[in-house]
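Batch job 17 of 40 flagged for manual review because the log was empty.
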Amino acid sequence: MKTKVIVETKKIETNYVFSENNQVYLKRKSNTNSSDGNCIRTEEWLPIAFCWKPELKSN
């Protein structure tokens, strides 16, 4: 007799980012429907406000 095992896992939410010329960009994917009913997937890179903060070490 075969036993079916189902394992539940949590999805890790991730975002693609890159930096160029001291500007950080976040990748945004979107889906839209065209007039003929087809799904159009687009990707765009959006500049975001981002500031690196130094790690504070306690002694």
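Reviewer: the log was empty due to a logging misconfiguration, but the result itself is present. The chain has a mean pLDDT of 83. Unflagging and moving on to job 18.
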